[in-house]
Amino acid sequence: MEPDMMAFARRLNQASQGERERLIRSGVAASHIQDLVETMHVSSERLLSMLNMPSSSVRRKIRQGVMLSPEHSERVLGLVCLIGQVTVMVEDSGNPNEFDAARWVGEWLERPLPALGGAKPSAYMDTTTGQKLVSNLLVQSQLGVFM
């Protein structure tokens, strides 16, 4: 992930709920979708499907250089926050060198997990509740708690 995007992901993960809410309400630039595609090494189609966002309107917003709706901004920021969470977890473990958190998240989201009944975490990225569930699974895995 690009250094500025990594810094943003880390800051977002550590931001207060009020700060996140302000970002959501002000909207996220649609171009952040392309940034995520590149840093996570996933296709735009896969990312938009994961976030349950309409491809045609998102592409139009990217071309026009406008902001996403608060609903779509929340989904994008939730995913960025997840990348920030993984970044902090790896830094806390003491071995962050050469680790690409965004790429790892992109791959991990596509792995079926027993804790999700064999579902992929990517199936939960389209709602705030689902994103929190996935975030909690990461915390549990770091603590060695497996369901």
From TrEMBL:
All residue ranges annotated as the Antitoxin Xre-like helix-turn-helix domain in the record: 20-80
GO terms, molecular function: DNA binding
Residues making up the signal peptide according to the UniProt record: none
Domain Antitoxin Xre/MbcA/ParS-like toxin-binding, first and last residues per copy: 102-139
InterPro entries xref list: Xre-like_HTH, Xre/MbcA/ParS-like_toxin-bd
Stored Pfam families: Xre-like-HTH (PF20432), Xre_MbcA_ParS_C (PF09722)
Residues spanning the membrane: none
This protein's name: DUF2384 domain-containing protein
Lineage: Bacteria, Pseudomonadati, Pseudomonadota, Betaproteobacteria, Rhodocyclales
